[in-house]
Amino acid sequence: MRAEDETRLPPGQQPIEHLPVLHVGPVPPFDPAAWDLRIEGEVRSPRRLSYQELRGLPAVIDTSDFHCVEGWSRLVCAWEGVRFSEICDLVAPTEHAHFATVGCEGEYTTSLPLEDLLSPDVLLAWGLDGRDLAPEHGFPLRLVVPQKYAYKSAKWVRWIRFTQEQELGYWEARGYSDSADPWREERRA
To answer: For position 127, which CATH number holds?
Structure first.
């Protein structure tokens, strides 16, 4: 490991070269003609975006590190997608919106403070390292929250609900930390 990489690693993490395949449930099928992203809750302008509409939003490439609660980190991931803040601009969260719950294919959810989601490195991503994400890594759409453990970076995103109170996500309801800060080793509640 290079010396500069050591300073990028949170406590208890080891660098890896390739993302392992970890997820809850089977990899869902994807039909671009039927797929949509619903954005609702405490917003002024609820939206339903087709895949074509989503991919038509201003795309960015953001390079960040990716840390798993299991103790591994993949450094220098070049994610491609749309900033979460762009979605907020579309739907105009109300003054009551303090959190967002992100729902996925199957039963997986996670919830984060809006303040965290508005960080410029938080993306709804469809690409990684110059290629579309592999289906087992979340294609067609994955939330990427670099400053949190990877269970907050939900795969196969289908809806976003803005809320006044934070809702427990899939892993949080099973005892994992809601704040999930890898620099503080916030693994369990």
So the answer is: 3.90.420.10
